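Internal tracking record. Fields below are filled automatically when a chain is submitted to the structure queue. Please do not edit lines marked as system-generated. If the sequence contains nonstandard residues, flag them in the REMARKS field before resubmitting.
Queue: standard
Priority: normal
Entity type: single polypeptide chain
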Amino acid sequence: MDGITRKKELLLEIIKKDVLITGEQQPSFSSNGEKSEEKSWLLDFRNIFLDPQALELIVEIFWHQFEKEYPFQVGGQEIAAIPLLSAIVLHSQKIGKPVNGFFIRKSRKPTGLQKIIEGKLNDEKIILVDDLTNSGGTLLRQAKVLEYAEKKATKAFVLVSFRDENKEILAQKNISLYSLYSLADIGLSIPEKIIQETQKFKLFWRFASPNPAFFLRLGKSSPVLDEEKVYFGADNGCLWALNQNDGTVAWKFEETGYSVSSDKIILSSPAIYKDTVYFGAYDGNVYAINKNTGRLRWKNMDAEFVGSSPAVAPELGILFIGLEFGLFKKQGGLTALDLKTGKKVWDYRMPDFTHCSPAYCPERKVVAVGCNDFYVYLFDAETGKLKWKYRTGGEIKASLVFDVKRNLLLFGSFDKNVYALDIDSGKVKGKFQTKEPIYSTPLVHGDNVYFGSMDKHLYSVNLDSGKLNWHTDCGGRIFAQPQVIEGKIYVGSTSGIMLEIDLLTGKITGHFTTTERITNRIAYNPKTKRFFLPTYANEMYCLKKGNPESYDIN
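SYSTEM-GENERATED OUTPUT FOLLOWS
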Protein backbone atom coordinates (compact mmCIF):
# COMPACT_ATOMS: atom_id res chain seq x y z
CA MET A 1 0.00 0.00 0.00
CA ASP A 2 1.54 3.34 -1.04
CA GLY A 3 1.62 6.36 1.26
CA ILE A 4 -1.17 8.37 -0.39
CA THR A 5 -3.56 5.38 -0.34
CA ARG A 6 -2.92 4.93 3.35
CA LYS A 7 -3.61 8.63 3.96
CA LYS A 8 -6.94 8.38 2.14
CA GLU A 9 -7.91 5.41 4.29
CA LEU A 10 -6.97 7.25 7.48
CA LEU A 11 -8.99 10.29 6.43
CA LEU A 12 -11.97 8.09 5.56
CA GLU A 13 -11.84 6.59 9.05
CA ILE A 14 -11.92 10.09 10.56
CA ILE A 15 -14.89 11.04 8.39
CA LYS A 16 -16.86 7.96 9.44
CA LYS A 17 -16.04 8.59 13.07
CA ASP A 18 -16.36 12.39 13.42
CA VAL A 19 -18.14 13.76 10.33
CA LEU A 20 -21.02 11.33 9.81
CA ILE A 21 -23.86 12.25 12.18
CA THR A 22 -26.93 10.02 12.29
CA GLY A 23 -30.36 10.83 13.71
CA GLU A 24 -29.78 8.20 16.38
CA GLN A 25 -26.59 9.91 17.57
CA GLN A 26 -27.79 13.50 17.50
CA PRO A 27 -31.00 15.00 16.08
CA SER A 28 -30.69 17.72 13.47
CA PHE A 29 -33.34 20.24 12.51
CA SER A 30 -34.60 21.65 9.23
CA SER A 31 -35.04 25.39 8.67
CA ASN A 32 -38.69 25.14 9.74
CA GLY A 33 -37.76 23.49 13.04
CA GLU A 34 -38.69 19.93 12.12
CA LYS A 35 -36.63 17.27 13.87
CA SER A 36 -34.83 14.72 11.71
CA GLU A 37 -35.80 11.08 11.68
CA GLU A 38 -33.60 8.53 13.45
CA LYS A 39 -32.60 6.93 10.14
CA SER A 40 -31.48 10.25 8.67
CA TRP A 41 -27.90 11.44 8.47
CA LEU A 42 -25.76 14.44 7.62
CA LEU A 43 -22.08 15.10 7.03
CA ASP A 44 -20.71 17.82 9.31
CA PHE A 45 -17.14 18.48 8.16
CA ARG A 46 -16.85 21.43 10.54
CA ASN A 47 -16.18 18.83 13.21
CA ILE A 48 -12.74 18.18 11.70
CA PHE A 49 -11.81 21.41 9.89
CA LEU A 50 -9.76 22.66 12.82
CA ASP A 51 -8.33 19.23 13.58
CA PRO A 52 -4.62 19.26 12.66
CA GLN A 53 -4.43 15.57 11.70
CA ALA A 54 -7.44 15.75 9.38
CA LEU A 55 -6.32 19.03 7.77
CA GLU A 56 -2.82 17.72 7.19
CA LEU A 57 -4.16 14.58 5.50
CA ILE A 58 -6.50 16.62 3.27
CA VAL A 59 -3.74 19.02 2.24
CA GLU A 60 -1.24 16.27 1.45
CA ILE A 61 -3.83 14.43 -0.67
CA PHE A 62 -4.72 17.68 -2.45
CA TRP A 63 -1.10 18.44 -3.30
CA HIS A 64 -0.50 14.90 -4.49
CA GLN A 65 -3.37 15.32 -6.92
CA PHE A 66 -2.65 18.84 -8.18
CA GLU A 67 1.07 19.48 -7.76
CA LYS A 68 1.61 18.88 -11.49
CA GLU A 69 -0.92 21.67 -12.20
CA TYR A 70 1.25 24.26 -10.45
CA PRO A 71 1.14 27.27 -10.72
CA PHE A 72 -2.50 27.77 -9.77
CA GLN A 73 -4.72 29.59 -7.27
CA VAL A 74 -7.40 28.17 -5.00
CA GLY A 75 -10.84 29.46 -4.06
CA GLY A 76 -14.14 28.35 -2.58
CA GLN A 77 -17.39 29.44 -0.97
CA GLU A 78 -17.73 30.29 2.69
CA ILE A 79 -17.82 28.71 5.28
CA ALA A 80 -16.57 25.19 4.65
CA ALA A 81 -13.92 26.14 2.09
CA ILE A 82 -12.17 28.72 4.28
CA PRO A 83 -10.24 26.33 6.59
CA LEU A 84 -9.35 24.12 3.60
CA LEU A 85 -8.08 27.09 1.61
CA SER A 86 -6.08 28.38 4.58
CA ALA A 87 -4.42 25.00 5.09
CA ILE A 88 -3.58 24.66 1.37
CA VAL A 89 -2.11 28.16 1.18
CA LEU A 90 -0.01 27.71 4.33
CA HIS A 91 1.31 24.35 3.10
CA SER A 92 2.19 25.86 -0.28
CA GLN A 93 4.59 28.29 1.38
CA LYS A 94 6.15 25.46 3.35
CA ILE A 95 6.94 23.41 0.22
CA GLY A 96 8.19 26.41 -1.73
CA LYS A 97 5.27 26.61 -4.15
CA PRO A 98 3.18 29.53 -2.87
CA VAL A 99 -0.39 29.79 -4.17
CA ASN A 100 -2.93 32.58 -4.00
CA GLY A 101 -6.22 32.00 -2.20
CA PHE A 102 -9.62 33.70 -2.14
CA PHE A 103 -13.14 32.91 -1.01
CA ILE A 104 -16.60 33.69 -2.37
CA ARG A 105 -19.38 34.91 -0.10
CA LYS A 106 -22.75 33.19 -0.08
CA SER A 107 -24.23 36.64 -0.58
CA ARG A 108 -22.62 40.00 -1.18
CA LYS A 109 -21.51 41.92 1.92
CA PRO A 110 -24.01 44.80 2.36
CA THR A 111 -21.56 47.18 4.09
CA GLY A 112 -17.95 48.26 3.71
CA LEU A 113 -16.55 47.40 0.27
CA GLN A 114 -19.62 45.25 -0.51
CA LYS A 115 -17.53 42.48 -2.03
CA ILE A 116 -18.75 39.08 -3.14
CA ILE A 117 -15.17 37.82 -3.72
CA GLU A 118 -12.79 38.28 -0.79
CA GLY A 119 -9.07 38.24 -1.53
CA LYS A 120 -7.13 39.05 -4.68
CA LEU A 121 -7.49 37.21 -7.97
CA ASN A 122 -4.53 36.75 -10.29
CA ASP A 123 -4.21 35.31 -13.80
CA GLU A 124 -3.29 31.75 -12.80
CA LYS A 125 -5.67 28.83 -13.29
CA ILE A 126 -8.29 28.37 -10.58
CA ILE A 127 -9.03 25.23 -8.58
CA LEU A 128 -12.25 25.37 -6.56
CA VAL A 129 -12.21 23.63 -3.17
CA ASP A 130 -15.16 22.45 -1.05
CA ASP A 131 -16.10 19.83 1.53
CA LEU A 132 -18.86 18.18 -0.51
CA THR A 133 -21.15 18.59 -3.49
CA ASN A 134 -24.70 17.31 -3.74
CA SER A 135 -26.23 18.67 -6.96
CA GLY A 136 -23.19 20.67 -8.10
CA GLY A 137 -25.13 23.91 -7.62
CA THR A 138 -22.69 25.57 -5.21
CA LEU A 139 -19.73 24.94 -7.51
CA LEU A 140 -21.69 26.16 -10.53
CA ARG A 141 -22.59 29.36 -8.67
CA GLN A 142 -18.92 29.96 -7.87
CA ALA A 143 -18.05 29.44 -11.52
CA LYS A 144 -20.66 32.03 -12.50
CA VAL A 145 -19.35 34.58 -9.96
CA LEU A 146 -15.86 34.11 -11.39
CA GLU A 147 -17.16 34.53 -14.95
CA TYR A 148 -18.58 37.93 -14.03
CA ALA A 149 -15.11 38.78 -12.65
CA GLU A 150 -13.72 37.68 -16.04
CA LYS A 151 -12.03 34.61 -14.53
CA LYS A 152 -12.59 30.92 -15.11
CA ALA A 153 -12.38 27.85 -12.89
CA THR A 154 -10.94 24.76 -14.56
CA LYS A 155 -10.94 22.15 -11.77
CA ALA A 156 -12.76 21.39 -8.53
CA PHE A 157 -11.66 19.38 -5.50
CA VAL A 158 -14.19 18.04 -2.98
CA LEU A 159 -13.97 15.51 -0.22
CA VAL A 160 -17.32 13.84 -0.98
CA SER A 161 -19.49 13.89 -4.10
CA PHE A 162 -23.04 12.66 -3.58
CA ARG A 163 -23.69 11.73 -7.21
CA ASP A 164 -21.69 10.46 -10.18
CA GLU A 165 -23.66 12.90 -12.37
CA ASN A 166 -21.83 15.81 -10.76
CA LYS A 167 -18.86 15.21 -13.05
CA GLU A 168 -21.11 15.56 -16.09
CA ILE A 169 -22.87 18.62 -14.66
CA LEU A 170 -19.57 20.43 -14.04
CA ALA A 171 -18.13 19.27 -17.34
CA GLN A 172 -20.81 21.39 -19.03
CA LYS A 173 -18.89 24.37 -17.65
CA ASN A 174 -15.53 22.81 -18.60
CA ILE A 175 -14.70 22.08 -14.95
CA SER A 176 -13.06 18.77 -14.08
CA LEU A 177 -14.28 17.39 -10.75
CA TYR A 178 -12.01 15.37 -8.45
CA SER A 179 -13.64 13.89 -5.34
CA LEU A 180 -11.91 11.80 -2.70
CA TYR A 181 -14.95 9.72 -1.76
CA SER A 182 -18.47 8.82 -2.81
CA LEU A 183 -21.36 8.24 -0.43
CA ALA A 184 -20.91 4.51 -0.97
CA ASP A 185 -17.35 4.77 0.39
CA ILE A 186 -18.84 6.07 3.66
CA GLY A 187 -21.55 3.40 3.64
CA LEU A 188 -24.36 5.76 2.65
CA SER A 189 -26.87 6.12 -0.16
CA ILE A 190 -28.41 9.41 -1.22
CA PRO A 191 -31.94 9.97 0.15
CA GLU A 192 -34.48 10.72 -2.56
CA LYS A 193 -35.55 13.90 -0.78
CA ILE A 194 -32.21 15.63 -1.42
CA ILE A 195 -31.88 14.69 -5.08
CA GLN A 196 -32.45 17.93 -6.97
CA GLU A 197 -33.40 18.56 -10.57
CA THR A 198 -30.55 19.96 -12.64
CA GLN A 199 -30.62 23.48 -13.95
CA LYS A 200 -32.66 23.63 -17.12
CA PHE A 201 -32.81 27.23 -18.26
CA LYS A 202 -30.83 28.85 -21.04
CA LEU A 203 -29.58 32.41 -20.58
CA PHE A 204 -30.22 34.68 -23.55
CA TRP A 205 -28.90 37.92 -22.10
CA ARG A 206 -28.11 39.68 -18.86
CA PHE A 207 -28.34 43.42 -18.15
CA ALA A 208 -26.84 45.15 -15.10
CA SER A 209 -27.82 48.67 -14.09
CA PRO A 210 -24.86 50.58 -12.59
CA ASN A 211 -24.41 51.50 -8.93
CA PRO A 212 -26.78 49.07 -7.18
CA ALA A 213 -27.51 49.69 -3.49
CA PHE A 214 -26.32 46.40 -1.98
CA PHE A 215 -27.22 47.55 1.54
CA LEU A 216 -30.92 47.41 0.59
CA ARG A 217 -31.61 43.70 1.03
CA LEU A 218 -35.35 43.81 0.39
CA GLY A 219 -37.92 43.84 -2.36
CA LYS A 220 -37.14 46.39 -5.05
CA SER A 221 -38.67 47.22 -8.44
CA SER A 222 -40.21 44.21 -10.20
CA PRO A 223 -40.21 44.02 -14.00
CA VAL A 224 -43.33 44.54 -16.10
CA LEU A 225 -43.71 43.69 -19.79
CA ASP A 226 -45.52 44.89 -22.84
CA GLU A 227 -45.25 43.28 -26.27
CA GLU A 228 -41.63 44.36 -26.90
CA LYS A 229 -39.99 45.82 -23.80
CA VAL A 230 -39.32 45.07 -20.14
CA TYR A 231 -39.52 47.98 -17.66
CA PHE A 232 -38.05 48.24 -14.15
CA GLY A 233 -36.62 50.81 -11.76
CA ALA A 234 -33.09 50.84 -10.36
CA ASP A 235 -31.12 52.12 -7.38
CA ASN A 236 -29.38 54.78 -9.51
CA GLY A 237 -32.69 56.59 -10.02
CA CYS A 238 -33.30 55.32 -13.55
CA LEU A 239 -36.36 53.63 -14.98
CA TRP A 240 -35.08 51.28 -17.68
CA ALA A 241 -36.90 50.14 -20.80
CA LEU A 242 -35.03 47.21 -22.35
CA ASN A 243 -35.77 45.42 -25.59
CA GLN A 244 -36.91 41.92 -24.66
CA ASN A 245 -35.23 40.35 -27.66
CA ASP A 246 -31.62 41.27 -26.88
CA GLY A 247 -31.51 43.33 -23.67
CA THR A 248 -30.43 46.54 -25.38
CA VAL A 249 -31.63 49.83 -23.91
CA ALA A 250 -34.69 51.23 -25.69
CA TRP A 251 -34.65 54.26 -23.40
CA LYS A 252 -34.07 55.26 -19.80
CA PHE A 253 -35.71 57.94 -17.68
CA GLU A 254 -33.88 59.45 -14.74
CA GLU A 255 -35.85 60.85 -11.81
CA THR A 256 -35.80 64.63 -11.80
CA GLY A 257 -36.97 65.75 -8.38
CA TYR A 258 -35.21 66.82 -5.18
CA SER A 259 -35.22 64.28 -2.39
CA VAL A 260 -34.57 64.81 1.32
CA SER A 261 -33.13 61.29 1.19
CA SER A 262 -29.49 60.86 0.18
CA ASP A 263 -30.49 57.70 -1.71
CA LYS A 264 -31.55 58.27 -5.29
CA ILE A 265 -33.50 55.07 -5.87
CA ILE A 266 -36.60 53.63 -7.49
CA LEU A 267 -38.07 50.78 -5.46
CA SER A 268 -41.53 51.15 -6.98
CA SER A 269 -42.58 48.53 -9.54
CA PRO A 270 -43.98 50.24 -12.63
CA ALA A 271 -47.54 49.80 -13.89
CA ILE A 272 -48.53 50.09 -17.56
CA TYR A 273 -51.84 51.39 -18.88
CA LYS A 274 -52.20 51.93 -22.62
CA ASP A 275 -49.09 53.84 -23.71
CA THR A 276 -48.05 55.16 -20.28
CA VAL A 277 -45.77 53.78 -17.57
CA TYR A 278 -46.50 54.88 -13.97
CA PHE A 279 -44.14 54.57 -10.99
CA GLY A 280 -42.99 56.29 -7.80
CA ALA A 281 -39.47 57.26 -6.75
CA TYR A 282 -37.60 58.17 -3.58
CA ASP A 283 -37.29 61.77 -4.79
CA GLY A 284 -40.91 62.04 -3.61
CA ASN A 285 -42.48 62.12 -7.06
CA VAL A 286 -44.98 59.91 -8.87
CA TYR A 287 -44.22 59.82 -12.60
CA ALA A 288 -46.15 59.13 -15.79
CA ILE A 289 -43.87 58.36 -18.75
CA ASN A 290 -44.64 57.74 -22.42
CA LYS A 291 -43.70 54.08 -22.82
CA ASN A 292 -42.71 54.51 -26.46
CA THR A 293 -40.40 57.50 -26.08
CA GLY A 294 -39.46 57.65 -22.39
CA ARG A 295 -40.63 61.26 -22.18
CA LEU A 296 -42.33 62.73 -19.11
CA ARG A 297 -46.08 63.22 -19.28
CA TRP A 298 -46.67 64.42 -15.74
CA LYS A 299 -45.34 64.12 -12.23
CA ASN A 300 -47.00 64.54 -8.87
CA MET A 301 -44.77 66.08 -6.20
CA ASP A 302 -46.94 65.73 -3.07
CA ALA A 303 -44.71 63.28 -1.14
CA GLU A 304 -41.19 63.25 0.25
CA PHE A 305 -40.56 59.55 -0.51
CA VAL A 306 -42.38 56.97 -2.62
CA GLY A 307 -41.44 53.31 -2.19
CA SER A 308 -44.91 51.98 -2.98
CA SER A 309 -45.95 50.63 -6.38
CA PRO A 310 -49.00 51.97 -8.23
CA ALA A 311 -52.29 50.15 -8.78
CA VAL A 312 -54.34 51.30 -11.75
CA ALA A 313 -58.15 51.48 -11.95
CA PRO A 314 -58.73 52.16 -15.68
CA GLU A 315 -62.55 52.34 -15.44
CA LEU A 316 -62.24 55.04 -12.76
CA GLY A 317 -59.38 56.87 -14.47
CA ILE A 318 -57.44 56.66 -11.19
CA LEU A 319 -54.03 55.50 -9.99
CA PHE A 320 -53.55 54.50 -6.33
CA ILE A 321 -50.17 54.67 -4.61
CA GLY A 322 -48.74 54.89 -1.10
CA LEU A 323 -46.89 58.06 -0.12
CA GLU A 324 -44.41 58.75 2.68
CA PHE A 325 -43.60 61.95 4.57
CA GLY A 326 -41.22 63.24 7.21
CA LEU A 327 -44.02 64.51 9.43
CA PHE A 328 -44.55 63.46 13.04
CA LYS A 329 -47.47 60.99 13.29
CA LYS A 330 -48.37 61.70 9.65
CA GLN A 331 -45.61 59.74 7.94
CA GLY A 332 -47.71 57.88 5.37
CA GLY A 333 -50.87 57.77 3.38
CA LEU A 334 -52.74 56.53 0.35
CA THR A 335 -53.48 58.84 -2.54
CA ALA A 336 -55.64 58.55 -5.67
CA LEU A 337 -54.30 60.43 -8.70
CA ASP A 338 -55.96 61.22 -12.02
CA LEU A 339 -54.38 58.97 -14.69
CA LYS A 340 -54.31 61.72 -17.32
CA THR A 341 -53.13 64.70 -15.24
CA GLY A 342 -51.57 63.36 -12.03
CA LYS A 343 -53.77 65.64 -9.96
CA LYS A 344 -54.98 64.42 -6.59
CA VAL A 345 -58.50 62.97 -6.53
CA TRP A 346 -58.43 62.05 -2.82
CA ASP A 347 -55.99 61.06 -0.12
CA TYR A 348 -55.90 59.61 3.39
CA ARG A 349 -53.10 60.20 5.90
CA MET A 350 -51.70 57.52 8.22
CA PRO A 351 -49.46 57.84 11.31
CA ASP A 352 -46.60 55.67 9.99
CA PHE A 353 -44.81 54.97 6.69
CA THR A 354 -46.87 53.45 3.87
CA HIS A 355 -44.35 51.46 1.90
CA CYS A 356 -46.95 48.82 1.08
CA SER A 357 -48.33 48.78 -2.47
CA PRO A 358 -52.12 49.13 -2.69
CA ALA A 359 -54.39 46.51 -4.28
CA TYR A 360 -57.48 47.44 -6.27
CA CYS A 361 -60.58 45.25 -6.64
CA PRO A 362 -62.63 46.29 -9.70
CA GLU A 363 -65.51 43.95 -8.81
CA ARG A 364 -66.06 45.66 -5.44
CA LYS A 365 -64.71 49.10 -6.37
CA VAL A 366 -62.50 49.10 -3.27
CA VAL A 367 -58.78 49.62 -2.69
CA ALA A 368 -56.75 48.19 0.20
CA VAL A 369 -53.32 49.08 1.58
CA GLY A 370 -51.16 48.14 4.57
CA CYS A 371 -49.05 50.40 6.75
CA ASN A 372 -46.14 50.26 9.18
CA ASP A 373 -48.66 51.18 11.91
CA PHE A 374 -49.74 47.47 11.85
CA TYR A 375 -53.09 48.31 10.19
CA VAL A 376 -54.68 47.28 6.91
CA TYR A 377 -57.11 49.86 5.50
CA LEU A 378 -59.95 49.37 3.00
CA PHE A 379 -61.41 52.36 1.11
CA ASP A 380 -64.15 53.12 -1.35
CA ALA A 381 -62.04 53.51 -4.49
CA GLU A 382 -64.03 56.40 -5.96
CA THR A 383 -64.49 58.59 -2.89
CA GLY A 384 -61.68 57.58 -0.55
CA LYS A 385 -64.10 56.91 2.27
CA LEU A 386 -62.62 54.52 4.85
CA LYS A 387 -64.79 51.39 5.09
CA TRP A 388 -62.79 49.65 7.83
CA LYS A 389 -59.31 49.07 9.21
CA TYR A 390 -57.85 46.02 10.92
CA ARG A 391 -54.85 45.88 13.25
CA THR A 392 -52.38 42.99 13.01
CA GLY A 393 -49.41 42.31 15.27
CA GLY A 394 -46.79 43.72 12.91
CA GLU A 395 -45.95 45.94 9.96
CA ILE A 396 -47.49 45.23 6.55
CA LYS A 397 -44.76 45.79 3.97
CA ALA A 398 -45.79 43.83 0.87
CA SER A 399 -48.96 44.16 -1.17
CA LEU A 400 -52.33 42.44 -0.80
CA VAL A 401 -54.52 40.29 -3.03
CA PHE A 402 -58.30 39.89 -3.40
CA ASP A 403 -60.11 36.56 -3.72
CA VAL A 404 -63.50 37.72 -5.02
CA LYS A 405 -64.89 34.16 -5.19
CA ARG A 406 -64.65 33.85 -1.41
CA ASN A 407 -64.96 37.59 -0.67
CA LEU A 408 -61.52 37.63 0.96
CA LEU A 409 -58.62 40.06 1.24
CA LEU A 410 -55.31 38.22 1.81
CA PHE A 411 -51.97 39.62 2.96
CA GLY A 412 -48.93 38.86 5.10
CA SER A 413 -47.71 40.69 8.20
CA PHE A 414 -44.48 41.02 10.11
CA ASP A 415 -46.29 39.22 12.96
CA LYS A 416 -45.55 36.03 10.90
CA ASN A 417 -49.17 35.47 9.84
CA VAL A 418 -51.01 35.46 6.54
CA TYR A 419 -54.51 36.85 7.07
CA ALA A 420 -57.77 36.28 5.22
CA LEU A 421 -60.26 39.10 5.99
CA ASP A 422 -63.83 39.48 4.84
CA ILE A 423 -63.89 42.25 2.23
CA ASP A 424 -67.18 43.71 3.46
CA SER A 425 -66.60 43.72 7.22
CA GLY A 426 -62.82 43.39 7.76
CA LYS A 427 -63.40 40.44 10.10
CA VAL A 428 -60.85 37.65 10.22
CA LYS A 429 -62.00 34.57 8.33
CA GLY A 430 -58.73 32.73 8.79
CA LYS A 431 -55.01 33.09 9.31
CA PHE A 432 -51.95 30.91 8.90
CA GLN A 433 -48.77 31.30 10.93
CA THR A 434 -45.22 30.79 9.66
CA LYS A 435 -41.93 30.81 11.56
CA GLU A 436 -40.77 34.30 10.51
CA PRO A 437 -42.18 37.64 9.25
CA ILE A 438 -43.79 37.82 5.81
CA TYR A 439 -42.55 40.30 3.20
CA SER A 440 -44.05 38.46 0.23
CA THR A 441 -47.32 39.23 -1.54
CA PRO A 442 -49.61 36.16 -1.63
CA LEU A 443 -50.78 34.64 -4.91
CA VAL A 444 -54.27 33.19 -5.32
CA HIS A 445 -54.48 30.44 -7.94
CA GLY A 446 -57.54 28.21 -8.16
CA ASP A 447 -58.59 27.12 -4.69
CA ASN A 448 -55.18 27.72 -3.10
CA VAL A 449 -53.06 30.62 -1.92
CA TYR A 450 -49.29 30.54 -2.30
CA PHE A 451 -46.97 32.74 -0.25
CA GLY A 452 -43.36 32.95 0.86
CA SER A 453 -41.96 33.69 4.29
CA MET A 454 -38.67 34.88 5.69
CA ASP A 455 -38.45 31.41 7.26
CA LYS A 456 -37.21 30.33 3.78
CA HIS A 457 -40.31 28.34 2.89
CA LEU A 458 -42.95 28.63 0.19
CA TYR A 459 -46.40 27.61 1.43
CA SER A 460 -49.51 26.32 -0.31
CA VAL A 461 -52.75 26.59 1.71
CA ASN A 462 -56.25 25.58 0.65
CA LEU A 463 -58.56 28.61 0.73
CA ASP A 464 -61.69 26.62 1.59
CA SER A 465 -60.32 24.51 4.44
CA GLY A 466 -57.43 26.70 5.59
CA LYS A 467 -55.26 23.58 5.71
CA LEU A 468 -51.67 23.36 4.55
CA ASN A 469 -51.18 21.54 1.25
CA TRP A 470 -47.37 21.61 1.36
CA HIS A 471 -44.41 23.80 2.22
CA THR A 472 -41.07 23.74 0.43
CA ASP A 473 -37.67 24.86 1.67
CA CYS A 474 -36.37 27.36 -0.90
CA GLY A 475 -32.91 27.74 0.64
CA GLY A 476 -33.24 31.46 1.37
CA ARG A 477 -35.65 34.09 2.67
CA ILE A 478 -38.51 34.90 0.33
CA PHE A 479 -39.38 38.52 -0.44
CA ALA A 480 -40.70 37.87 -3.94
CA GLN A 481 -44.28 37.11 -4.89
CA PRO A 482 -44.57 33.61 -6.40
CA GLN A 483 -45.85 33.35 -9.97
CA VAL A 484 -47.75 30.53 -11.72
CA ILE A 485 -46.37 30.04 -15.22
CA GLU A 486 -47.31 27.23 -17.61
CA GLY A 487 -48.67 25.08 -14.80
CA LYS A 488 -45.65 25.47 -12.48
CA ILE A 489 -44.95 27.88 -9.65
CA TYR A 490 -41.80 30.03 -9.79
CA VAL A 491 -40.19 31.99 -7.00
CA GLY A 492 -36.74 33.33 -6.14
CA SER A 493 -35.10 33.73 -2.74
CA THR A 494 -32.14 35.41 -1.09
CA SER A 495 -30.10 32.30 -1.91
CA GLY A 496 -29.94 33.67 -5.47
CA ILE A 497 -31.83 30.70 -6.90
CA MET A 498 -35.04 30.77 -8.91
CA LEU A 499 -37.00 27.58 -8.26
CA GLU A 500 -39.56 25.83 -10.42
CA ILE A 501 -42.01 23.97 -8.16
CA ASP A 502 -44.84 21.53 -8.81
CA LEU A 503 -48.19 23.10 -7.90
CA LEU A 504 -49.71 19.96 -6.43
CA THR A 505 -46.80 18.44 -4.51
CA GLY A 506 -44.40 21.30 -3.78
CA LYS A 507 -41.57 19.25 -5.27
CA ILE A 508 -38.72 21.23 -6.85
CA THR A 509 -38.56 20.38 -10.56
CA GLY A 510 -35.98 22.87 -11.82
CA HIS A 511 -33.87 25.87 -10.91
CA PHE A 512 -31.66 28.67 -12.21
CA THR A 513 -28.78 30.08 -10.17
CA THR A 514 -27.73 33.73 -10.11
CA THR A 515 -24.87 35.32 -8.16
CA GLU A 516 -27.06 37.79 -6.24
CA ARG A 517 -30.18 37.71 -4.07
CA ILE A 518 -33.58 37.47 -5.75
CA THR A 519 -36.11 39.65 -3.93
CA ASN A 520 -38.70 40.41 -6.62
CA ARG A 521 -41.23 38.55 -8.71
CA ILE A 522 -40.47 37.09 -12.12
CA ALA A 523 -42.10 38.34 -15.33
CA TYR A 524 -43.00 36.00 -18.21
CA ASN A 525 -43.87 36.51 -21.85
CA PRO A 526 -46.14 33.62 -22.92
CA LYS A 527 -45.65 34.36 -26.63
CA THR A 528 -41.85 34.12 -26.61
CA LYS A 529 -41.73 31.72 -23.60
CA ARG A 530 -39.10 33.95 -22.01
CA PHE A 531 -38.63 34.56 -18.28
CA PHE A 532 -37.36 37.91 -16.97
CA LEU A 533 -35.62 37.37 -13.65
CA PRO A 534 -34.50 40.38 -11.53
CA THR A 535 -31.96 40.44 -8.69
CA TYR A 536 -31.56 42.96 -5.89
CA ALA A 537 -28.33 44.07 -7.62
CA ASN A 538 -30.48 45.62 -10.39
CA GLU A 539 -29.66 42.83 -12.83
CA MET A 540 -32.14 41.46 -15.35
CA TYR A 541 -31.74 37.92 -16.69
CA CYS A 542 -33.61 36.82 -19.81
CA LEU A 543 -34.13 33.03 -19.67
CA LYS A 544 -35.88 30.29 -21.54
CA LYS A 545 -36.32 26.63 -20.71
CA GLY A 546 -33.76 24.57 -22.56
CA ASN A 547 -30.25 23.17 -22.57
CA PRO A 548 -28.10 25.32 -20.23
CA GLU A 549 -24.80 24.15 -21.70
CA SER A 550 -24.04 27.35 -23.60
CA TYR A 551 -24.48 30.58 -21.65
CA ASP A 552 -24.08 33.68 -23.75
CA ILE A 553 -23.78 36.62 -21.36
CA ASN A 554 -23.91 40.01 -23.08
